Amino acid sequence: MAEDKQKVVIIGGGIAGLTSAFYLQKAAKEQSLPIEIILVEASHRLGGKLQTVVRDGFTIERGPDSFLARKTSMIRLAKEVGMDDQLVHNSTGKSYVLVNERLHSMPGGSIMGIPTEIGPFITSALFSLPGKLRAAADFVLPRSESGKDQSLGEFFRRRLGDEVVENLIEPLLSGIYAGDIDQLSLMSTFPQFYEVEQKYRSLILGMKKSTPAQPKKPVSTEKPKGAFLTFVSGLQSFAEAIEANLDPASILKGHRVDKIMKTDNQYEIYLNNGETIYADCIIAATPHQVTQMMFSQYSFFEPFKSVPSTSVATVALAFPEEAVKQDIDGTGFVVSRNGDYSITACTWTHKKWAHSTPKGKVLLRCYVGRAGDETIVDLSDDQITKIVLDDLNKTMKITMKPDFAIVSRWKNSMPQYTVGHKQRLETILAHVKEELPGVFLAGASYGGVGVPDCIDQGEAAVKSVLEYLKEKGISKEAVY
Question: Which of 64, 107, 363, 452 could be bridged to 120 by S-S, CB 3.0 to 4.6 A?
């Protein structure tokens, strides 16, 4: 075994960086690898967008509030850090689309807005008769050009028409990325839709055939489990649990990386306080803008400059139960762009996540800001809160001021996977492999914006680090 330890520096303490640090430390311990790990974070806390406010019995998320239960990497990591007993499913209930000043129930059988059952689609008031007839053209239209990237908007408008896109698909899909579906890449966001179209030609028939049939279950009084999971103590507690499992001496908070230079055998990492760290491997778990600035002397990172990021904000409003006079049977709604609304969605959090709200209280969480319409995020808390309350009172009757409001802003924090994203990223990564061996990227800017996606990328980065060290011939007896 080599006497000197190999130093791996992880830059960025969001969920991708935390995951990388945890699994690399775990591998080093279990396999007795001579690896020293340093996690560098510019702010004074770890966890990135995983931020939770606990106040007056409420549990309020500032960033994401949950994750898809079918994405098991997050469940596995929760078990690793002793948090699996804190997981809870969402309560199921009706969801709506706000179109033409009315809340319309989401058509039954629709998958991400794509109809798979004719009956609910035909009877839905979301679409006019011409809109429904146009959507039926999907049954006869040819496939898209093989292998060609295109925007989500172009793909769905061609198959289902403008009305179905504007009133159902766009409010659902754009909310995930806070982006413009006429700019977002099909291949980088929802390639499964392209694959279904290529296999079955008709998107509607393809989604119906490729969706597993639900087995008939015996009649039960138990409510079905929701598709999402979160932690009773909030997502921030998950980040804190991961941090608690790390060696405290390996964490460097409040230090920003200004520049990274490659030397003959190592990398020099220059910090904002004048210090320099030397590394054999680097995992850059940073947003693309930050990555480009750290490696600014390497021209192949230049395309990251033109990758847009949108700004969004969430507004959590707490009320006494009696304040909401016109209640709605459901867990929330999304908003069509065609309406005169500033909010893009609203979750009735007290109904979706029962643990989040004390008895006798109501918790509403609204979203504002989207691609091309982000100025609202720069308004004061009071101004944003008033706008949100005015919007809510168009569909609900709220008779009291909120007990409190929490506004959370995320400036330039939602990376946009525009058309060509996959090819751009592949080109950059090929240059990195050739010119900066031992450097790996992970995080929401690259291979998926959801929390489990970032966990997957963190794990993949750790695997790449270990393989790189093995190929480099360092500690061959220890690695694997």
Answer: 107
Nearest Cα to 37, choosing from 19, 63, 52? 19
Q: Which of 414, 431, 453 is the last residue of a domain?
A: 414
How far is residue 457's CA from residue 280's CA, in Å, rounded to a whole number? 20
Confidence class for position 297, pLDDT limits 50, 70, 90:
very high
Q: What is the CATH number of the domain that holds 32?
A: 3.50.50.60
Distance from first CA to last CA of the chain, Å, rounded? Answer: 13
DSSP class of 305: G
15-30 vs 451-471: helix axis angle to the nearest 10?
40
How many separate domains does the chain show? 3
Tell me the two tokens of residue 10: 């992880």
Local structure of 180: helix, strand or coil: coil
Residue 85 lies in a domain: no
Q: Domain residues for 317? A: 309-414
Nearest to 167 by CA among 82, 65, 98: 98
Structure tokens at 62: 């500032």
Residue ranges of alpha helices (H) inside 65-185 are: 72-80, 118-123, 129-135, 152-160, 162-164, 170-177
Q: Are 159 and 197 in contact (CB under 8 A)?
A: yes
The pLDDT value given to residue 1? 40
Half-sphere exposure of 317 (CA within 13 A, CB side): 26
pTM of the model: 0.92
Tell me, yes or no, whether 347 and 294 share the same domain: no
Regarding whether 168 and 314 lie in a shared domain, the answer is no
